[in-house]
Design brief:
heterodimer, A: about 110 residues, 6-stranded mixed β-sheet, B: mainly beta
């Protein structure tokens, strides 16, 4: 069983739609990362959160530590949001070594 | 530069060649990580440095893989006698101690 699971694996949307990507993990963690990877491989760190909710522009990330679940929401989606979104968590409480989900491939059409 | 940089961005190697991949972390960042990302998969941990000390190399897939960070800043990942299964994107990330990782653009290695 993967320690980090994301759903859905693939997601298509029309411009303007509200997007939700889910991440569940089985290890105890200190914080969870949401990352964005565009074609070509470069990764951008979107959020690191350990509780509650964070917002940056049209992106919102929430986490429920008790349920070991996090969601990434995109409001008013745009074609430039098309990318792979990856959830990652530290392997254990006392390390920064991350383990990654396999990602959610999002395509937003105009 | 403001971010983590990696070079080269793309590398094509013939099977059996040695390659060296470079990572320039953000200045002052203590932690440096190397990850390997196979096509269609999430990144997987290779090795971790805290300053110049390689504290964890448990993810290196074989003794053909070697990483160094001799002065605690720039790091080099070397792969000897490359094999086709080494084809992947190699990602470097740096961070201040116990903080969110800043990722580089990656080096896409293709072994033919």
């Amino acid at each position: 069983k993967n320690e980090v699971e994301q759903s859905p694996q693939n997601l298509t949307a029309q411009e303007g739609e509200f997007i939700t990507i889910n991440c569940s993990y089985s290890v105890g963690i200190s914080a969870l990362h949401w990352l964005q990877q565009h074609p070509g491989g470069g990764i951008v760190s979107l959020f690191m959160l350990s509780s509650g909710k964070k917002k940056h522009g049209r992106l919102i990330a929430t986490i429920n530590i008790q349920e070991k679940h996090s969601s990434l929401h995109i409001t008013a989606s745009h074609p430039r949001d098309s990318a792979v979104y990856i959830c990652a968590v530290p392997l254990s409480y006392n390390t920064d070594k991350l383990i990654f989900g396999t990602g959610t491939r999002l395509q937003v059409f105009p | 530069g403001a971010g983590v940089s990696q070079s080269p961005r793309y590398k094509v190697a013939k099977r059996g060649q040695d390659v060296a991949l470079r990572c320039d972390p953000i200045s002052g960042h203590v932690s440096l990580f190397w990850y390997q990302q196979a096509l269609g998969q999430g990144p997987e941990f290779l090795t971790y440095f805290q300053n110049e000390a390689q504290l964890d190399k448990s993810g290196l897939p074989s003794d053909r893989f070697f990483a160094e960070r001799p002065e605690g800043s720039v790091s080099t990942l070397k792969i000897q006698r490359t094999q086709q299964e080494d084809s992947a994107v190699y990602l470097c990330a740096s961070s201040p101690y116990r903080d969110s990782g800043y990722f580089g653009p990656g080096t896409r290695l293709t072994v033919t």
